[in-house]
Amino acid sequence: GVVTEVGPGVTHRSVGDRVMGVLHGSFGPTAVADTRMVAPVPRGWDMREAAGMPVAYLTAWYGLVELAGLRAGERVLIHAATGGVGMAAVQIARHLGA
Predict the structure, then answer these.
(1) Which strand (E) or helix (H) includes residue 6?
(2) Interval 73-78 mean pLDDT
(3) By the 8 A CB rule, do 89 and 78 touch?
(4) Residue 9 contacts by C-beta under 8 Å, 6 or more apart in sequence?
(5) What is the DSSP letter of 24?
(6) Could you give the CA distance from residue 2 to residue 36 in angstroms, rounded to a whole number?
(7) Mean pLDDT over the full length of the chain
(8) Hey, what long-range contacts does 5-14 have (CB within 8 A, 24 or more apart)?
(9) Which residue from 67, 66, 56 is spatially nearest to 90, judged by alpha carbons?
């Protein structure tokens, strides 16, 4: 979405910034978000791409962390690592030290 207002103390977001993120109530015309839960939309991305990217990472996180309990030092096989969720899974696994 597009930032329409910022609260006091917010220094790295401005009105007019295009952002993407994961937050409650984001499937509506307006939403209130903690600035830590949004990121800038990369240059060249349209809003459809920006809306879909967080879903891939949430899906991968849910599978690896919430369901499988993946931890540092473990090994993981990720099938279809060239798709959206697969690429997210590889990055999350590396971030976790697996």
Answers:
(1) none
(2) 97
(3) yes
(4) none
(5) T
(6) 15
(7) 91
(8) 6/35, 10/35, 13/38
(9) 56
Write out the two tokens for 47. 């809003």
Tokens read off for 91: 């990055």
Q: How confident is the model at residue 76 (pLDDT cuts 50, 70, 90)?
A: very high
Residue corresponding to tokens 């910022």? 6
Please provide the CATH number assigned to the domain covering 47-98. 3.40.50.720
Measured in degrees and rounded to the nearest 5, phi and psi for residue 50 equal -65, -35
CA distance 80 to 1: 30
Q: Rounded CA gap, 29 and 16, in Å?
A: 15
Dist. CA 73–CA 93, nearest whole Å: 10
Looking at the chain, the domain(s) classified CATH 3.40.50.720 span: 47-98
Tally the residues of the chain.
98
Check if the beta carbon of residue 33 is closer than 8 Å to that of residue 54.
no
Cα separation of 58 and 71, whole Å? 17
